[in-house]
Every structure is written in structure tokens, then in C-alpha cells.
Amino acid sequence: MSQLDEVCDTLKRTLKQQNITYKALAKQLNMSEANVKRMFSLKQFSLARLEDICHVACISLSDLFVLIEKQKDKLVQLSPEQEQELVDDVKLFLVAACVRDGWSFDEIIHHYQINQFECIQLMAKLDRLKIIQLLPNNQYKILIAQDFQWIPNGPLERFMEKEGIGKFMASSFVGENSFRFYIRGTYSQTSIDIIERKLNQLKKEVALLNQEDASLPLENRQHIGLLLAMRPWELSQFEQLRKS
């Protein structure tokens, strides 16, 4: 992620946490809402404008840079040993997923078949694995970034391919909050690069939304799966008709 991406993402997260919309920000800056949206979309901020936005968010420029550094300190990828320990213990994997989504200790033991003693032990394991920092009174600080990556062909990816993705796709996707689309085409490398960049941006935005929504009551949130995929591919029926 470039430094401009980090600045823009941290600003958007900070504004959203304070319920400051683009419309409200535009009013404070004496700008149109469209220009504010364009400024964030293009990531074009003068130093003076950046300071103005920070002022609206009640933080200083130095506060902004501290927030950026704190996010950068988080793990973006686990080690093979960390991943393997998670997939070897389903309850540990579950608690890791819950804390990444901002669940409290009490919410975990209320919703799952994990008692208080077990949950303390599991969170202590996550602390040892450097996934969280365990704090007094069963509080914790998450140490992995929202957009952390699986190791390519690592334990987590192999587990999800076997246990998750096939079952996820075995659905009609017609219910509430369900959506599925498939697009095929023949694209230039330039267009493929653009598509990949947009998919990566969407992945970052989805991760950021999950982090922001962690502050909401659990009853106002629900588990959602989102799969983004792209690769060179042709229907086997088409492929069989190709001339050798």
C-alpha cells in the first residue's frame, strides 16, 4: 500500500468513526460534496487541505501519522506455524476469527459452545501466537491487520479450499443479502491490470468496513462471506472446440 493510500484510508476510517459524512465534511471545508468525493477518490490532498480535514476530525496532523504507523505495525501475514496451529484447533480458529471481527469475550462465550475457562485459555494461545495482546479483564488488542493475507498454498488457504470455498459456492445465492455474478470476456493486459487494481481496492475497502463496524453492537452485525476471484479460464465446452 502506498503512503497516499495509507493517508486516505486512515482519514476515511477516522471520519467514519466520528460519523462525519462527505456531505458534512464538505460543509465544514466550504466545498461541494462532489469535490470532496473526488479528492478522496483521486487521493489528491494539499498539506493545507489535509490539515483542514484533520481539524474537522478533531485530530492533529501528527495524530494522523501516529494512527497510520499503528496500523502499519500490525501483522499482514501469519507464519506457516501460526496458520497451522489455527487450523489444527477449530475452537482456536473460531476465537481468532471472532476477535478479528471485534467480538468481546462475553459475546464469544454467549454465542458459542466455549466456556469461560476455555475462552481464557484460547485467548492466551492467541496472545502467545502474537495475534492479539491480552489485556486485563479479558480485554485484548488485535495485532493483525484487517486486510492480512493468507500464505499462498499455506495451511489456511488449503483449509479454506477444502472446507470453506466449495461449501460457500454450493448455494443458489437468492436469499436476502446474497449476490452472485459471473462475467467473462477477452481482455488486453492493460484492462486486466485495471480490473486487478479495482478488485484489490474493493478488498481493502471491505476490510476497512469490517474494522469500522466492530464498534457496533453484535446484534447489528451478521456473518458475511465475500469471494473475489480472477484467473485465465475458458469453459471446458468451449476449450474442446478449439482447433489444435
**Helix-strand string:** HHHHHEHHHHEEEHHH
User: What kind of sheet is the major sheet?
Assistant: 2 strands, parallel
Care to count the β-strands?
A: 4
Proportion of residues in β-strands: 5-15%
Structural class: mainly alpha
N- to C-terminal distance: 43 Å
Mean pLDDT: 88
Physical arrangement of strands within the biggest beta sheet: 1-4
DSSP helix fraction: 55-70%
Low-confidence parts: none
Domains counted in the coordinates: how many?
2
User: Outline, from the CA principal axes?
Assistant: globular
Q: From the alpha carbons, calculate the radius of gyration and give it in angstroms.
A: 21 Å
Separate helix tally? 12
Secondary-structure blueprint of this entry?
Elements (H helix, E strand, L loop, with lengths): L2 H15 L4 H8 L3 H10 L4 H10 L4 H12 L2 E3 L2 H8 L2 H11 L4 H7 L4 H13 L3 E4 L3 E4 L1 E6 L5 H15 L19 H25 L22 H4 L5
Parallel strand pairs: 1-4
Antiparallel strand pairs: 2-3
Helix pairs in contact: 1-5, 1-11, 2-3, 7-9
Explain what this protein looks like in three dimensions.
With 244 residues, the chain is mostly helical. The protein has 2 domains: 3-72, Orthogonal Bundle (434 Repressor (Amino-terminal Domain)), CATH 1.10.260; 76-220, no CATH class. Helix content is 57%, strand content 7%. The chain contains 12 helices and 4 strands; from the N terminus they run H-H-H-H-H-E-H-H-H-H-E-E-E-H-H-H. A two-stranded parallel ribbon has the order 1-4. Helix 1 (3-17) packs across helix 5 (61-72) and helix 7 crosses helix 9. The mean pLDDT is 88.
